[in-house]
Design brief:
Blueprint (H helix, E strand, L loop, with lengths): L8 H15 L2 H9 L6 H12 L18 H13 L7 H14 L2 H12 L5 E4 L15 E5 L2 E8 L10 E7 L10 E7 L5 E6 L8 E12 L3 E2 L5 H16 L2 H17 L1 E2 L2 E2 L4 H30 L5 H24 L15 H4 L1 H8 L9 H11 L4
Parallel strand pairs: 1-4
Antiparallel strand pairs: 2-3, 3-7, 4-5, 5-8, 6-7, 9-10
């Protein structure tokens, strides 16, 4: 690792900036800033750069590339990451399946999958949600029936984000239909090139095809691809979700988006006056900035809870409030664009690209309050863990 964690906070911050702003290709960061990231190429190239510098899988065990940083160091990392316009690490690899395999997988699975997962030599997707099992995952119906040294899997997964790029899927499957819903679920690793796997893209409100339906028809999966113990997949899923939610908040990216909104507001005029000068707009901006500060404090709490190995509910607050703030900033940018947001294929000189993307961005941001556990689920977690309800 090129990062000196024993240096002062400012020296540590400077060393991160060198990697984020000089090692990650500038053309990739420009595409992030412009909202036209190339997937999967840019994500793969960027994550491999970060992995080479020991900055891709911070929350993994140290023997597999993780670090033991203070909450302050983690906060600086997330802040500089967002401000540098670095593409998001592939959360399915970094925050989800990687930690699960590291914690519960066999030694063979760790050796086989973890280095390739960190370096994005394998692109993972998540096979949890089903047509009638979204937030209520315990009602999933996809079955895996043991047949010698294989499981035969049949069922359907939906809202499979970036599944069109995936090499492998980590999936929850029902292995005991007679048990209580949570007790009969297993965690299975499925090769997406296996016979019987079919992907079908779903077009979203913004016109993109980010999510997919995945159909599993008599897919034969080696028993060696079972993570942990059969019928204990629900526990592994809960372990996974607590790690996913902190990154979904995207505190650094929110700060970057809010800064960009100020720039846009300074350029757009209404009645000859910049939007940024309008008192009501400035009050709205100040409110968002105050909420961002509160979110940063909550991120510290979540990181400290993770360091202590406890689950005090800060992660749920972080996910809930981070999701809401992302949505509100997208709405702010759309309001700044005004009528220009109705143009989707106009001339860049008359209607800037950020304005043409504003409506699509606003619409697609609505999903942030759903994936990783809906806002309603987060409120239930907060009520149970923090309020004793």
């Amino acid at each position: 690792m090129d990062i000196n964690v024993d240096a002062s906070a400012e020296e540590f911050r400077d060393s991160l900036r060198v990697v984020f702003r000089e090692k990650v290709p500038v053309e990739i960061r420009d595409r992030v800033r412009a909202g036209c990231l190339r997937e999967p190429e840019d994500v793969v190239e960027s994550q491999r750069v970060l992995n080479a510098h020991g900055l891709a899988v911070l929350n993994w065990p140290e023997e597999w590339g993780g670090v033991r940083w203070s909450a302050e160091r983690h906060h600086i990392y997330f802040e500089e990451f967002g401000l540098a316009d670095v593409p998001d690490l592939l959360t399915f690899n970094v925050d989800m399946v990687g930690p699960v395999i590291a914690e519960f997988g066999s030694e063979e699975q760790k050796q086989r999958f973890l280095p390739a997962t960190a370096n994005l030599d394998i692109w993972w997707c998540q096979g949890f949600s089903e047509p009638e099992a979204g937030s209520d995952l315990a009602s999933l119906r996809t079955k895996a029936v043991r047949d010698g040294e294989y499981y035969v899997v049949n069922g359907q997964k939906t809202w499979t984000t970036l599944g069109q790029h995936a090499d492998w899927m980590f999936a929850l499957v029902r292995t005991d239909s007679a048990a209580k819903p949570q007790a009969g679920i297993s965690f299975l690793l499925i090769d997406m090139t296996s016979p019987g796997v079919t992907r079908r893209p779903i077009e979203l409100l913004d016109g993109s095809c980010e999510v997919n339906e995945v159909f599993l028809t008599d897919v034969r999966v080696p028993v060696a691809n079972l993570v942990g113990v059969e019928n204990r997949g629900w526990s592994y899923a809960k372990f996974l979700l607590t790690r996913e939610r902190a990154r979904i908040a995207r505190v650094g990216q929110i700060r970057r988006s809010l800064s960009q909104a100020k720039v846009y507001a300074g350029k757009v005029t209404r009645g000859g006056v910049p939007v940024l000068s309008a008192p009501l707009f400035r009050a709205r901006l100040a409110e968002l900035e105050n909420e961002l500060i509160a979110l940063e404090v909550t991120q510290f709490r979540a990181l400290e809870e993770h360091d202590r190995g406890v689950s005090g509910g800060a992660g749920a607050i972080l996910k809930l409030r981070g999701s809401e703030l992302q949505e509100r900033i997208a709405e702010l940018v759309m309001d700044i664009a005004g009528a220009s947001a109705l143009v989707t294929d106009g001339d860049e000189e008359t209607t800037p690209q950020w304005a043409q993307r504003a409506v699509g961005s606003y619409l697609t941001e609505r999903k942030v309050a759903i994936y990783g556990g809906s806002s309603e689920v987060q409120r239930m977690v907060i009520g149970a863990q923090m309020l004793g309800l």
